[in-house]
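Convert to structure. Protein one:
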Amino acid sequence: MTAIVQDQVDEKKRRWLIVATAAVGAAAGAGVAAPFALSWFPSARALAAGAPVEVPIDKLEPGQQITVEWRGKPIWVLRRTKEMLDILPKADPLLVDPECTVPQQPAYIKGRERAIKPEYFVCEGVCTHLGCSPTLKKEIGAASDMGPDWPGGYYCPCHNSRFDLSARVFKGSPAPTNLKIPPHNYKSDAVIVIGEDPKGA
């Protein structure tokens, strides 16, 4: 007589093992994928080394300036008003380099506005004299406490360097050149990318 032995399958245990195996596999996959996905974003070290920085500008009010950091330097983003732009030509005779012939800006930055879009002025907030950071003095005339002829601009109280609202240096300042304009482009109407040239530039 032959005995036929059939395996007894515990369906509950089988399902539990399948679920447990799937869970362990998913966790392992996430553990591998997470560092890979995070590697797409610039690390703090990469940011310090000069990775581009995105700056939202949609909440920036006319006349308001914000400061962000790129490569360890303060970068200003000033939303200039029409009045601020209109006064720029009046400062030309008082400036060291009104045409910006010294290459302190990327080649695609042209004109006295020194900007891709005149309304938004992007500039390194570092004085070209000894590396101090000037202060925005946007009021015009006596209201500025800079004298009745002040056309608005930037003032470095450390050594008395003065710049207009395009960061062009005034004659008589210890700073030898205009302030630098960093490479930048517009990701959209609401976001500027600091540290990255426009495509095709």
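Protein two, convert as well:
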Amino acid sequence: MSRTIVDVHILHTVPPSNLNRDDTGAPKTAVYGGVRRARVSSQAWKRATRKAFESLLDPSELGVRTKKVAAALAERISALEPSLARETALAAAAEAVHAATGAKIEPPKRKSADAAKGGADAPAPESSYLMFLSARQFDALAVLALEGIKGSGDIKAFFKNRDNKARAREAAVTRHSVDIALFGRMVADSSDINVDAAAQVAHAISVHAVENETDYFTAVDDRNEGDGESGAGMIGTVDFNSATLYRYAALDIDALSRNLGQGLRDDEPVTDPVRRAVEAFIKGFAASVPTGKINTFGNQTLPDAVVVKLRTSRPVNFVGAFETPVRADEDGGHLAKACAALAAYVPNVEHAYGVEKDTHTWVVRVGPGTEPLADLGTAVTLPELTDAVGAAVAARLEQRG
């Protein structure tokens, strides 16, 4: 059976910036094709994409990834029963999350000690690692926890009951949010409730060689006026680079469909959740930028070109087009040569592997430098692209039934 794969290829030029720092504060780099490149980790761009979802999707379709999972669930329990004491809601939330995921939910030791010293309330219990639950999973667990509170009142005994524990685990494995379905979930204590990601995101790398640079800066003390203290109030350095990045991501539509399940409402087509997720991912991934040092550099650029392919076989990353680094010509600039390299590489690969006839391509591009990409596919704007890919994906799912 053929698969349904969506590939996203982006050329994105960013000015001096520090999108994604390493442990020394310098922009991340990687060696590819024997030369050092600028690099932005996949984790950084996944988070930027997830943050973009907040303006693209209803909150009910999103999840929360946090150690403060008990506090988040307690808020929902208290919203259902406002008369509950904070401690009761937190205790019930902790037991519900433990029953659902197997994770220990305990007050953090350092915060507890500090609270005890200062005479403050005990902190809310937390998990030892980030937990990723959808809004609908939080809601289901809140209803179940409240049932336990209103029952015998012994919340521990309620969730030790085999049937109730099974209900808690069922709540954690159904009705996944779009972000969990796309990016997956790992629960260290219960691998059976892990979710395999439907999206693959590559580390973005520059199409050309890059060396990090350092900005030495000074800041003036506004109160130094005529008192003989004319020096800087502080000095420092910040590392940066600028790059034309090749960005790549792939969506396994079949995996996404399995993760999201059927339609959320009886009156909507069963393909609607997948279509909305695909459209949100393409728009969010294309238009987002990691926020590292963004107030310092203001690197709010949009991609120069977005190429999306709908395939029936495996995903294909075209980073090989840049294994030989692009060199700026005498007038400067890497974008035009990067577009030419990509435009030459793509048909060669697809012809060699016999996949061009089963692939549909759309191209969003800006400016004359991207002209070489025009022949790769149908010219569209980003809104037209998301609509077209969403409709094509939904049509393929409907054909399969």
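Residues 382-400 form the longest helix (19 residues). The longest strand covers residues 234-252.
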